[in-house]
Specification:
The protein is α/β, with parallel strands linked by helices. Helix content is 29%, strand content 26%. The protein binds NADPH dihydro-nicotinamide-adenine-dinucleotide phosphate. Keywords: Disulfide bond, FAD, Flavoprotein, Oxidoreductase, Redox-active center.
Length: 463
């Protein structure tokens, strides 16, 4: 049986980084993947989603082009099939890059389903990607669980008639009438993507505003923009069942108030759960809570040789945080002087048609501990003037009145994720509003507004 220093189960963003940094620090490392090299982000998440966002955006750019003097007309239809083929080619290329990156680092790759036999032994057997894989056992001093998460379907009659984001990336045709349940990251992003590609989208959610957990003003602004993008919103609703119409021709979504909607596809975007099936966690006694592995930011579980990183431990559930957790764990184990990250001021983006970027605290979160000065600005970006495209940008700074430190920055509008990534440095460095004001504006840009907002819109006292 092969004896390793570290064995990583799951070759997604966190697992790959952990394996690579451990190997760079001289560890003998193995990694197992059962389905997709590169994991959710590369295969069923960030990468294909962002390519779809670009596809939807391109349609809108063609629409706007005549306003800038281009003699073009938007084609009647979006070629879903050729786009999907191009997307799959890109993902195949990335799969290859992941495999060669791991091999070059001297890591032993196992394709198959891995499960724990005991606190130091892993068994790898056949999986969807390797149905004929031989059963092998490996021993390792340390084991890292990095299997990520998988979409949740609501427990309602007919739930199997719905699809999730996993299936959406491979549908043979683009559904024309779509009902999306849930207004979190995935619901909002796919509403924008599918509407941009020409589908008729209805978005159902149980709150009064979409995107629970984000700043209230951002959520209210987003709600207006969702309307402007032609998406029909149904706030305050919950689905109770799905029914088949015409033997697979359509699906009927029935709500708690008795109303029903017939559509070509229902997408459940109702959260994700840890991917722990067949991992053998019970047999080893790894402590779980609400379906997730209990582990700290250092990855430690209750079993000294077993660690968990990324979505399986359900804390941040983002690709860059899984990468940082994987990197920090590898350094902690094999190079204790290594790199660390600050998780306090996490930048986040929602890639809606008018994207959202945020870093640090929302006004509601900040007001629990601080007296605040709030700076907001809404305006029509220059690019939208000639095509007369509606939809304003929202920019917002949440500032601690006492220290003048910028606690949070929020933006809804073109390039918000790009702009907020840079502003995240300032928020992480705890820069003050005065220091932002001392920065010369870059003109003409949208981002300059973050250094030109002079007068607070309002003061908010600590709650
Ligand atoms: P989210 O947790 O973001 O949103 C879940 C949605 O489902 C919410 O609107 C929630 O409503 C709703 N919901 C949950 N349970 C029910 C129920 N029983 N009945 C009705 N509605 C329900 O999950 P997503 O699936 O959108 O995304 C999963 C994770 O993937 C995110 O947490 C995020 O970390 C990650 N992700 C990140 C992206 C990015 O960084 N851009 C993109 C895509 C995914 P309510 O608010 O009322 O609870």
């Amino acid at each position: 049986m092969q004896e390793l220093d570290l064995f990583v189960i799951g070759a997604g963003s966190g697992g790959v980084r952990c394996a690579r940094i451990a190997a760079q620090n001289g560890a003998r490392v193995g990694i197992a993947e059962r389905r997709h090299w590169g994991g959710t982000c590369v295969n069923l998440g960030c990468v294909p989603k962002k390519l779809m966002v670009y596809a939807a955006e391109t349609g809108r750019m063609i629409e706007d082009a005549p306003a800038f003097g281009w003699d073009v007309q938007r084609p009647e239809t979006f070629d879903w099939y050729s786009f999907l083929a191009a997307k799959d080619r890109e993902i195949e290329r990335l799969n290859g890059i992941y495999i060669s990156m791991l091999e070059k680092a001297g890591i032993t790759l196992y394709t198959g389903d891995a499960r724990l036999i005991d606190a130091h032994t892993i068994e790898i057997g056949p999986s969807v990607l390797a149905p004929d894989a031989p059963v092998q056992r490996v021993r390792a001093k340390k084991i890292v669980l990095a299997t990520g998460s998988t979409p949740i379907r609501l427990d309602i009659p007919g739930a199997e008639l719905a699809i999730t984001s996993d299936e959406l990336f491979h549908l043979p045709e683009r559904p024309q009438r779509v009902a999306i349940i849930g207004s979190g990251y995935i619901g909002v992003e796919f509403a924008g993507i599918l509407a941009g590609m020409g589908s008729q989208v209805d978005l159902f959610y149980r709150q009064t505003l979409p995107l629970r957990g984000f700043d209230g003003e951002v959520r209210a602004h987003l709600k207006e923009l969702i309307d402007l993008y032609g998406i029909t919103q149904h706030p305050g609703t919950s689905p109770v069942r799905l029914e088949d119409v015409g033997g697979g021709k359509a699906v009927r979504l029935v709500l708690d108030d008795g109303t029903a909607y017939e559509v070509d596809a229902v997408i459940m975007a109702t959260g994700r759960r840890a991917a722990i099936d067949k991992l053998g966690l019970d047999s080893v006694g790894v402590v779980m809570e609400k379906g997730h592995v209990v582990a700290g930011i250092d990855g430690r579980t209750n079993i000294p040789s077993i660690y968990a990183i990324g979505d399986i431990r359900d804390e941040y559930n983002l690709t860059p945080t899984a990468i940082a957790e994987g990197h920090m764990l590898a350094e902690q184990l094999f190079n204790p002087q290594g790199r660390t990250w600050s998780f306090e001021t996490l930048p986040k983006a929602v890639f809606f048609s008018s994207p959202i970027g945020v870093v640090g605290l929302s006004e509601e979160e900040a007001a629990q501990k601080h007296d605040l000065a709030i700076y907001t600005s809404t305006f029509t970006p220059m690019r939208q003037i000639l095509p007369k495209r509606a939809g304003k940008v929202l920019m917002k700074l949440v500032v601690d009145r006492q220290s003048d430190i910028v606690l949070g920055a929020h933006m809804v509008g073109p390039d918000a994720p790009e702009i907020i990534q840079m502003l995240a440095i300032a928020v992480t460095a705890k820069l003050t509003k005065k220091q932002l004001d001392q920065t010369i504006a870059l003109h003409p840009s949208t981002a300059e507004e973050f250094v030109t907002m002079r007068t607070p819109t309002r003061m908010v006292d600590k709650q």
